[in-house]
Design brief:
Blueprint (H helix, E strand, L loop, with lengths): L1 H17 L11 H15 L3 H8 L3 H9 L8 H13 L7 E4 L2 E3 L3 H4 L7 H8 L4 E3 L2 E5 L4 E5 L9 H10 L5 E5 L8 H8 L7 E6 L14 E5 L11 E5 L6 H9 L5 E5 L7 E7 L5 E11 L13 E2 L4 H5 L4 H10 L2
Parallel strand pairs: 5-6, 6-9, 9-10, 10-13
Antiparallel strand pairs: 1-2, 1-12, 3-4, 4-5, 7-8, 7-12, 11-12
Protein name: Peptidase S41
InterPro entries: ClpP/crotonase-like_dom_sf (IPR029045), Tail-specific_protease (IPR005151), Tricorn_C1 (IPR028204)
Pfam family, one: Tricorn_C1
Length: 337
């Protein structure tokens, strides 16, 4: 309970600060909504300096460029397109704008890269007799390696469910934890699963909170600790499988697992999404979600643009034609050595 409180209290404080975004009045017209959105992001978005260093993002230049596109006679659809394009300059999958007729989104973080995952291939490995618990699919492969597929952290993962899964796979020599295409969800679910792979409390990263309107107004980094579960824990070798569609809470899960003993990460670089998202609202009622609290790995490296695997492996066309998943087979080879 103390861990939960330590995690929630800073978020409550940060959320209270975000809720004050609209204290300055803006008119409900194209110019007013543009100014309100730019200011919300300017004062509360958390990755300006990082993205300036990564690809030269200049938020003031973005203002000047998109301000010229605002016209009092433009329709709501036209305004939505311009504002959505402006948000796209941030290259952040956690930045979205919602209207009754559409949702702006930035998906290039995964769509510009190979999928490295196939449902049809996975069905060949899972077969028809796999088991499922708390949304997690699992079975024993024919070389006595356990296989777990966790495609989402959107729902809570029960402790009893994880006990049942690990008990079923206890006789396996090693374990594959496949989180490819996991777009995230609840950070607590990512922690719950990762806590089965350490016997000691370990430092897995850091988090900061916005403390003011300046781009560099942040709290001191706060440690993120992963505590071992009180339930069954896994002590044999583990391979975690990743691709570019691993995002947000799933990105954090990979960050945690890289700190656990006996874990090897195999596949493609993850998609990132290392900002805790919060929401605000424009004068016309459109809501906007954005990254407000940056998270880092245990070496204070930003993971907003993803985490590199220990072994970069791509799904090949030749293996696909043979019904083989290159990444799963590579993991099996590593684990069987």
């Amino acid at each position: 309970m103390r861990r939960v409180l330590n995690f929630l209290l800073p978020l409550i404080v940060a959320l209270a600060a975000v809720s004050c975004v609209d204290e300055e009045e803006y008119s409900d017209d194209p110019r007013g909504n543009f100014e309100a959105l730019w200011k919300i992001m300017n004062e509360h978005y958390c990755f300006f300096d990082y993205k300036n260093s990564e690809y030269g993002l200049d938020w003031n230049e973005v203002y000047a460029r998109y301000s010229r596109q605002i016209d009092d006679g433009m329709t709501s659809t036209q305004l939505f397109e311009v504002l959505g394009n402006m948000l796209g300059e941030l290259r952040d999958g956690h930045v979205n704008m919602y209207a009754s007729f559409d949702q702006s989104r930035y998906w290039s973080w995964k769509e510009d890269y190979p999928a490295n995952f196939s449902d049809s291939l996975q069905r060949r490995y899972l077969g028809t007799d796999y088991k499922i618990s708390s949304g997690i699919k699992y079975r024993k492969l024919d070389d006595n390696i356990g296989y777990i597929y966790c495609g989402s952290f959107s729902n809570a993962i029960g402790s009893g469910n994880l006990n049942d899964i690990l008990m079923e796979l206890a006789t396996c020599n090693a374990l594959i934890v496949d989180v490819r295409d996991n777009g995230g969800g609840m950070l607590t679910s990512a922690e719950t699963l990762a806590s089965r792979f350490t016997d000691e409390e370990i430092l897995v990263g850091y988090m900061q909170h916005k403390t003011g309107p300046g781009h560099n107004d942040f709290s001191e980094p706060e440690e993120q600790k992963l505590k071992p579960s009180s339930g069954l824990r896994w002590h044999k070798p583990v391979a975690v499988l990743t691709n570019r569609a691993v995002f947000s809470a799933a990105n954090e899960f990979v960050k945690y697992m890289k700190c656990c003993p006996g874990v090897t990460v195999i596949g493609d670089k993850t998609g990132g999404g290392a900002g805790m998202p919060f929401s605000s609202e424009l004068p016309n009622g459109w809501s906007v979600r954005f990254s407000a609290c940056p998270m880092y790995d245990r070496d204070m490296n930003c993971t907003e643009f993803g985490i590199e695997p220990d072994h970069n492996v791509q799904l090949t066309d030749s293996d696909f034609a043979k019904g083989r998943d290159t990444i799963i087979e590579y993991a099996r080879n590593i684990l069987n050595q």
